[in-house]
Design a protein that fits this description.
Elements (H helix, E strand, L loop, with lengths): L13 H5 L6 H26 L4 H9 L14 H12 L3 H19 L3 H12 L5 E3 L2 H7 L7 E6 L2 E11 L7 E8 L5 E8 L6 E3 L12 E11 L3 E3 L3 H32 L1 H8 L6 H20 L6 H29 L9 H14 L4 H13 L5
Helix pairs in contact: 2-4, 4-5, 4-8, 5-6, 5-8, 8-10, 8-11, 8-12, 10-11, 11-12, 11-13
């Protein structure tokens, strides 16, 4: 039986704390929760609708130790990292997504062979002195056969020239960076994963206005014979590292879903006093959703404790929990809006914002349809004799 996971995930029981092997995690989790609650509860609507990019909050969270679980190149503390994503996402899904982007980029930096990336830049990245995201939506879809690699690289002396366009990349701005993948060769079957330094304004272009999540600093990238030096190459060929990173990539996204779900439950409980007498007739009541969230969290912690990307059954579980988290977020946020009624439909209200955050969880790579496609494909693969 797995240990009880209280809500939010950052509130560790003694049994759960022992999983991290670090008695200081309670203090770190408390600081993260306090910063998220005090800073994001009032900023969330501004971030979501007005495009406020909360780098100041991310820096505070970094200084509190939010990204420290990824400091170990060989043994990152994925359990504690997932808890951190959930604690932030409970108060603001946009900021939770930025945390996920930053953590994903940390995984790429840690895997780079050059010390300027895996030591120097990684240290600055983890403490919030530098910021960077991930441009791996397209490669992840390409791995599944859903679309083709959008960037193409040509080998030249000292590195590569890269051409192509990526329409939506988050947590980037001039002076920042992201992990990106380009195809190689005439047949474009080989791929290279590299750090893309966004040091020129012409590399970025503005995206259309979304219905929410505007504060995630999501831009398009356009490269024309853009030189990437050899020292910024993270993996070539990229496929083995992409396969290894896929597990934390997905499980950290599940932390986003868990936080959004808990936030929705919070909104339901806020109105139990004045509206409980009529809300009792709604489906997906807070106690029911809390029980389902507890089960989801227990599965998530179990999977995060011992990643096994080479095991097919393990990967089926990871794909399934990612889809389950998105689907439960959709149900929970819709129910929270119904529980709050008109007060939850105000433009500044958390319930209507969380509905859109949950919709984002359902379509962000890998989307629910993508996950179901991969689940079907993987479940039908024959294992070697």
């Amino acid at each position: 039986m797995l240990p009880h996971i209280s809500h939010p995930m950052s509130d560790l029981t003694p049994e759960a704390a022992s999983m991290t092997g670090n008695n200081g995690c309670d203090d770190v989790s408390s600081r993260i929760e306090q910063i998220a609650r005090t800073r994001l509860s009032s900023l969330a609507s501004t971030i979501d609708q007005e495009g406020y990019y909360p780098l100041d909050v991310l820096e505070e969270l970094a200084q509190a130790g939010l990204f420290s679980p990824l400091a170990s190149r060989d043994n990152p503390d994925l359990v504690q990292a997932v808890r951190g994503v959930a604690a932030v996402s409970r108060w603001c899904g946009s900021t939770g997504f930025l945390v996920w982007c930053h953590m994903a980029c940390a995984l790429y930096l840690a895997a780079a062979p050059d010390a300027s990336l895996n030591t120097d830049l990684l240290a600055l990245h983890l403490k919030g002195a530098r910021f960077g995201g991930t441009a791996l939506s397209n490669p992840i879809k390409a791995q599944a056969g859903i679309e083709k690699i959008a960037l193409h690289a040509t080998r030249v002396a000292g590195g590569y020239l890269v051409d192509g366009t990526l329409p939506w990349v988050s947590h980037i701005a001039q002076g920042q960076y992201c992990g990106a993948v380009a195809s190689l060769g005439e047949d474009r079957t080989e791929q290279v994963l590299f750090l893309l330094r966004l040091d020129k304004p012409e590399l970025l272009f503005k995206c259309p206005h979304f219905s929410g999540m505007e504060g995630t600093s999501t831009c398009g990238i356009r490269l024309q014979a853009h030189f990437v030096p050899e020292q910024d190459v993270i993996a070539s060929p990229a496929a083995p590292l992409l396969k290894q990173i896929k597990v934390p990539f997905l499980l950290l996204q599940c932390g986003m879903a868990a936080g959004i779900i808990q936030g929705a439950i919070d909104s339901m409980q806020e109105v139990e006093g004045p509206l409980g007498h009529v809300n009792q007739y709604l489906h997906d009541r807070p106690d029911t959703l809390a029980s389902e969230l507890k089960t989801l969290e227990e599965r998530l912690i179990f999977l995060a404790r011992a990643p096994a990307p080479q095991d097919r059954d393990y990967m089926l579980d990871v794909l399934d929990i990612r889809a389950h988290g998105a689907e439960l977020a959709l149900r929970a946020t819709q129910s929270a809006l119904l529980h709050q009624g008109a007060r939850g439909y105000l433009s500044s209200a958390a319930p209507q914002r969380r509905v859109r955050e949950a919709q984002f969880m359902a379509i962000v790579t890998p989307a629910i349809k993508h996950l179901r496609y991969e689940l079907d494909r993987l479940s039908q693969e024959e294992m070697p004799v």
